[in-house]
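Appendix B. Chain record.
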Amino acid sequence: MTAANPSSLRNDKIDLLRGWLIFLVIVGHIVLGSVHENPIRYVIYAFHMPLFIGLSGYLINAERLVQGSFLSLLVRYWRRVLLPFALAFCVFTGVLIFHAWDESRLSQKLLLSYLVTPYYHLWFVPTLVLWVLALWAVLKLKIPITICMLVSVVITLLWAVLAIPDLAPILTMIVSKKVVYFFGFFLFGVWLKTKPGQKCMRGVTSFKALPAALLILCAVIYLMNIGPEKSFVKGLAWLVMNLNLMIICIAWAAAVVKRKQKTLVNKHGQINPCLVSMGRISLPIYLWHVLPLFLLKGFDVHISMPWGYYGLSIVSVMVIVGILIKLENRSSITNRVLYGV
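Structure tokens predicted for this chain:
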């Protein structure tokens, strides 16, 4: 998630990819049922966050990052992502606190949990900042990115193949946290921008159909094992699938086109420009698309009227996305508090 910039300075293919991913995020949040019970959610959650996280890592400018101080880095990310996050955090947390107070169940422990643990989807933004700070520390200490990436990917594999009760207590504390087991994808994205990563990406994609065949094979293995149970084969297939998908998608999106880039507008529709816009302003869409779902579920509409919930959710989210697209660059205030510009 990055702030909106003039389209002339952006890669539309990157924004198109992020647009598809933020669309899948929305679908995954609208669909009811647990991840392991609903096939739609199971498929989406199998890859959309790893790919989104990996793409975020790839878009980090490591050279610029290492040149800044810790304080300047915090100031920069406060303006870009933490201020829009703080506004959304106050709104969602404020409603939760009011609801708990209205039902006479507000306590110091509950209040502390609301303040320490961001609501539902909000975990990603502060976690992304923590990953950036960790990368800054790695670069400052001149620790090889390749080594850090390999260690992080091994930790991700441990989380994927071993049930939490099977882990040693010290590993349970580490591996069970999203900030840790998703860090491998972030670092893999960063690594793909290095010379060894670029060489690996060219080598993998030079095999033409082989990466796609491996991707399909791993996806089939993972989908055949739907459910919360973990195994080495399932976990390894999930990890290889996502790392391979990152290589394929990033290689496609970051490819240097010698000829003049063709328009992304589909002859039979205008869906691509919409997705490009969604990718460009993925931060505010990510933060605010949950609001109508939050309110509808708060009134138990998803239980009393499931089909009504779906209809209202789809319409209201479309309205929010449309408003955010229209408001982009309309005001310096909205740019600052919504888009991180």
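Further analysis of this model is presented in Appendix C.
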